[in-house]
Design brief:
The chain is of the alpha+beta class. Helix content is 37%, strand content 22%. The chain starts with 13 loop residues before the first helix and ends with a helix.
């Protein structure tokens, strides 16, 4: 019997280390699976299949596999890959991995056993090895088992070379239902690896191709798009503070979401597209998203209007230390000098986009408030003298200046398709009139000038008020102005038109003088 002082003092208490490492690092199943996909991409894979199967058991019903068509591994490489800290590419910044922790750490964070099959076109054989949590904890497995040559499993049939990682006895997956995991993985992997998917890599989950998800909503081949690029910038950053000889490039892009079109989506649709509660900055290392959050935004607080813009920061692996990239590649801890270099421009742009989103929502709200007046006029139009069918040259000029304002969101259906459609649009005019108008086929547009004193001092307060008396009064003012515009639109002949337009100018100027007096 050993004396008490001869207890094992090895640097790592293996049984406790393995249990502890299961609780560290990974935010969930999607993050852990992403580590395996990193390895596949590093091995040159162009096709990666994730499969989830359930045997219906109570304790650990789901088995997960990741199969790729990469280069595969030889016996030594396989054994090394299953070691914690084992890597043939340690600190290699040319790919997605650096630390040699991805395969064993991600696998045992989700499952009690990981089995790896790998094969190469040159070897012509399938090698197998594994790690088993129970065997390690019991002291029965003290080193990575020597890979064995095995018969080619049916599930890897079809690839000349590649690797298959199997998680069995999965006890820490995010969900117990295959369908739930399928959905979560498709969304997460589609965003994390969007740049690789756009470059031609194919990733599937249970046979369904993962669609690239662009949090900026810009890319034409993303699952959802329609945003507009707002601004971009580049910065060359020192990898080591004060050392100008080692630098990396940081690219920043901002996008602006279409408030007029998408604000009318249902709450469920906004959640499905990632609009609601999606504010933040996507941080991308070497084409792979490593974090998403409220980064480099200085003192700006997050607000609801921030759901309507996005930011993406792409950086080169040379700047890993500057961004404080972790070995799990799912979190950053940026250095103070990097924060100082980027935060000023990013915060200022974010504040500008927040302000634009606020104004855009106000415009949508105002457009909705015009609808009651527009609908009332449209309903009564068939009781009046019909408007001439053809617009006049002066109408075309006004309509050309309103192309953006008159563009209808795809999800909005205008009423009164068989009659005249009335529209009210706030738009600064090139003259001093309070209002202008334009006649088009099936449409009469009233343009209100926000710069006129009557709009600023009287009409704006009525428009923004929620008091029902103010709403009723504003509707009456709308109908009064629509009636005036319609009466002028009925006029024919140059002389009559000239007199009417001059009367509108004189009336507007007189009203402005009275109000400013």
């Amino acid at each position: 019997m050993k004396p008490a002082e001869d207890h094992d003092f090895s640097i790592v208490a293996v049984d406790k280390f393995i249990q502890a490492t299961r609780d560290s690092g990974y935010k969930g199943t999607s993050s852990a699976v992403a580590e395996l996909i990193d390895n596949s991409l590093q091995a040159g894979a162009t096709e990666i299949k994730v499969t989830l199967t359930s045997d219906g058991g109570e304790d650990h019903p789901i088995t997960l596999k990741v199969i790729d068509n990469g280069s595969g591994m030889d016996m030594r490489t396989l054994r090394t890959a299953l070691r914690f800290g084992g890597s043939t590419r340690f600190n290699d910044r040319r790919g997605l991995g650096r630390y040699g922790m991805g395969l064993p750490n991600s696998s045992l964070s989700q499952a009690q056993r990981v089995t790896v099959h790998t094969w190469g076109s040159k070897q012509g054989q399938v090698l197998e090895s594994y790690l088993d949590l129970d065997e390690i904890a019991a002291g029965d497995l003290t080193e990575v088992p020597k890979p064995e040559r095995v018969t080619r499993p049916a599930f890897i049939n079809g690839y000349e070379s590649g690797t298959a990682v199997t998680w069995s006895r999965c006890d820490r997956l995010d969900a117990r239902r295959v369908s739930t995991l399928e959905r979560k993985l498709a969304l997460s992997l589609g965003r994390r690896f969007r740049h690789f998917l756009w470059d031609g890599v194919r990733i599937s989950v249970n046979g369904e191709q993962v669609q690239p998800i662009d949090p900026l909503f810009l890319h034409e081949r993303a699952l959802f798009n329609g945003a507009t690029e707002y601004a971009s910038l580049e910065r060359e950053i020192a990898a080591i503070p004060g050392d100008p000889t080692s630098t990396g490039l940081v690219r920043v892009r901002f996008s602006e979401l279409p408030v007029a079109e998408w604000s009318k989506l249902s709450n469920q649709e906004k959640r499905e597209r990632g609009i609601a509660k999606g504010a933040g900055v996507s941080v991308v290392r070497g084409g792979r998203e490593v974090d998403y959050g409220w980064f480099f935004l200085g003192g700006k607080r997050r607000e609801n209007y921030d759901d309507w813009w996005r930011c993406e920061i792409l950086f080169e692996p040379a700047l890993d230390e500057a961004f404080g990239i972790t070995h799990t590649k799912q979190q950053i801890r940026p250095r103070p000098d990097l924060i100082e270099a980027l935060s000023g421009d990013i915060e200022n742009t974010a504040r500008a986009l927040n302000s634009r989103a606020r104004k855009a929502h106000l415009s949508v709200k105002i457009a909705e408030r015009f609808s009651s007046s527009e609908d009332r006029a449209s309903e009564k139009d068939d009781l009046l003298t019909p408007l001439p069918p053809e617009p006049r040259p002066r109408d075309k000029a006004v309509l050309d200046s309103l192309k953006k304002e008159l563009k209808q969101p795809a999800n909005v259906e205008r009423k009164h398709e068989d009659g005249v459609e009335y529209r009210i649009v706030p738009k600064a005019l090139n003259d001093t009139c309070f209002f202008n108008y334009a006649r088009a086929e099936g449409k009469l547009v009233l343009v209100l000038n926000p710069d006129h004193p009557f709009y600023r001092l009287v009409y704006k307060q009525l428009l923004e008020s929620d008091d029902q008396r103010d709403v009723a009064l504003r509707t009456s003012v709308d109908l009064l102005l629509l009636a005036a515009a319609r009466a002028e639109a009925l006029l024919e002949g140059k002389d009559a038109l000239k007199v009417a337009e001059q009367l509108r100018v004189d009336w507007s100027d007189t009203l402005a003088t009275f109000l400013n007096g």
